[in-house]
Amino acid sequence: MRWAAIKIARAGITMWLVVTFVFFVLRISGDPTYMLLPDDIDEATRDFYRRLWGLDKPLMTQYWSYLKALSQGDFGISFRNNLDAFDLVMERVPKTLLLTTTALAISLAIGIPLGILAALYRDSWLDRGVMAVAVFGFSMPNFFLGILLILFFSLNLRILPSSGSGTWAHLIMPAATLGISFAAQFARYTRSSMIDVLSKPYMRTARSKGAGLARRVNLHALPNASVPIVTILGFKIGELIGGAVITETVFAWPGIGRLLTNAVDTRDLAVVQCIMILLALTMVTANAITDLIYGWIDPRVRVGAGASQK
Amino acid sequence: MSATGLITGRRWAPVRVMAQTPIGVVLAAGFMVVMFFVMIFAKVIQPYEFDYIDLLARMAPPIPLEGSTWAHPVGTDTLGRDLMSRLLVGTQTSMLLALLGTCLGAVLGVALGFLAAHKGRLWDEVIMGLVDFQAAMPWFIVALAILAFLGNSMLIFIAIMALYGWETYARITRGLVLSAREQGYALAVRGLGARARWVYLRHILPNIAGPLLVQLTVNFPSTILFETSLSFLGLGIRPPMTSLGQMLGEGRDYLINAWWLAVVPGLTIFLITLCMSILGDWLRSKLDPSLEA
Fold it and tell me: Of the residues A84, A149, A247, B288, which has the maximum number of CB atoms within 10 A of its CB?
């Protein structure tokens, strides 16, 4: 239990660092009234807006009221259209969630079986083929893959829509674009993790006891090989979200990524701030969950951490 | 072995190494040599000024296509600028930034890794806390926000590139130093009265350089993808300068009429990352056989 408490405390500190970082980066970037209001406005109006947004107070006071507002779930008002920033972001969450989970599902469904096959038939043509394809998939920038898919399926064959998110057909290309490089990475990690496990003495034992291939792979090798894969999965969530920003831009998919690039273009402080903090929260939670799952599949982690704390 | 044997052995060594190396690796190395050449000499070998506008020669396609000319072998863009020249200069920018970003990130990460391993609890906690923080925020998204709000000067962009990926080096270095420090040679040198800095720089660093070099090679493609992605979104390198990502972002608007404007720079990025990944994999299998199980 102590092990879990330490993990959670660390996550809390990381969150505080992120929140503080976001505040200071966005505040030292200059007076928002100059970015948002027309240039020819008079000083009195400018002052009015500074007071309205609380920009006339000392930085530390602003920081405290910012922390207080955040703890109450108040992320401020979008400077652009006067809507609640949190609501604006939440409205987009389902679309991004749909895109990223589909992409992740595709990548796991392709990557893990291919990785297992490559490991089982190590150094065969199958292994070489899978790994060669994986290097290609891994090196393909997703913005370029997206453009190639649009060129081929939308402009050449005219069978898939190139932008928007109305139907299921709209999901195919963005999810494939985002999923393929991760599929390649998972194939590689699964392969090396499986190869590692397959050479362990307990695999030989299982074999000598007469366990069949399917039983050996599913019950003996996979649970052990899955430990590093789960760890990597946690680290990949940030990359997945970064990739979603690009993919959503290429395919005009109306998710968080599009909102972020638009907010960045229009310098909408509150929206950018809200997205960054929610993303960090997602990441920290995901990492904490990964750690907990990690400890659950691999009891050695729990015991090891507990022992070293004493 | 006789003297002549030694000499012939030496003379033939490069050829023997080449023959033992997989053909893919040799090709990848060859391509990267060309890319590094372009990185240094792009401005010398460009057939036109990369930003020279010739409105009479707009949207010429690349060579095998109908309507192409030898005057512009890779075609021209919507302002009639020679795509070959833009490609060379764009490659130069992207390669230079990726190299600079990778090296700065490595130096920063390795230094902090050493510090975390050497200074003991407090420093270790602080640095590892920073590593956690860096890993908690997708740096790509932080970079978007920073570039948008702090403006886009070259200095800020390079700083962002340098801060990309340092945490991996820090983590690797810390782990390697902690284990290397307890090994015989380090203990022996310390026992002889060497100062800590001497032990770290002259004895431990060369011994852990292999894995760090592999990480450098592995990191290079992702750094180039980082830069091109930001420039693609219009937030990294911006006109009048150009990079591969900026060209691709520009070309995206003309997919229907002039697909090569996006495909040519995109293919170049893909080939660079592909070749570096192949080289990185090969280097890893050479330097660190334990990873190949």
Answer: A247
Q: How far apart are CA B14 and CA B23, in angstroms?
A: 15
**Would you place residue B135 in the very low, low, confident or very high pLDDT band (cuts 50, 70, 90)?**
confident
Residues B179 and A128: their CA atoms lie apart, in Å, by: 34
A246 and B229: CB-CB below 8 Å? Answer: yes
Q: Which of A147-156, B60-69, B108-117, B165-174 has the lowest mean pLDDT?
A: B60-69
Cβ neighbors of A305 (< 8 A, separation 6 or more) are A3, A6, A295
Note the pLDDT of residue A308: 40
- Please give the full DSSP string across A212-269, using - where no structure is assigned: -HHHIIIIIIHHHHHHHHHHHHHHHHHHHHHHHHHHHHHTT--SHHHHHHHHHHTT-H
As to burial, measured by CB atoms within 10 angstroms (0-12 exposed, 13-18 middle, 19+ buried), residue A180 is: buried
- How many helices (H) does chain B have, and how many strands (E)? 12, 0
B45-94 tens-digit pLDDT: 888 888 888 887 777 788 877 777 777 888 888 888 888 899 999 999 99
Please report the pLDDT score of residue B290 as a whole number: 56
Contact of A281 with chain B, judged by CB distance below 8 Å, is answered with: no
Which residues lie below 8 Å from residue A4, measured CB to CB, with a gap of 6+?
A292, A295
Structure tokens at A190: 């699964």
- Supply the mean pLDDT for chain B: 83
C-alpha A175/C-alpha A244 separation (Å) is 9
ipTM: 0.84
The residue among A144, A232, A246 with the most chain B CBs within 10 A of its CB, best to mutate, is A144
Res. B20: pLDDT tops 90: no
Using alpha carbons only, what angle is made at residue B104 by residues B211 and A13, rounded to the nearest 5 degrees? 85
CA nearest to A272 within chain B: B145
Question: Which of these ranges, A231-245, A248-262, B164-178, has the smallest mean pLDDT?
Answer: A231-245
As a whole number of angstroms, the distance between CA B94 and CA B106 comes to 18
Place of tokens 């589909």: A102
| Lookup: tokens for B162 | 């340098």
Write out the two tokens for A116: 């297992």
Length of chain A measured in residues: 310
Q: CB–CB of B114/B169 below 8 Å?
A: no
Rounded to the nearest integer, the mean pLDDT of chain A is 83
Instruction: Judge: B274–A246 Cβ closer than 8 Å, yes or no.
Output: no
More confident residue, B238 or A31: B238
Return d(Cα B4, Cα A292) in angstroms, integer. Answer: 64
Q: State the first-to-last Cα distance of chain A, in angstroms, to the nearest integer.
A: 13
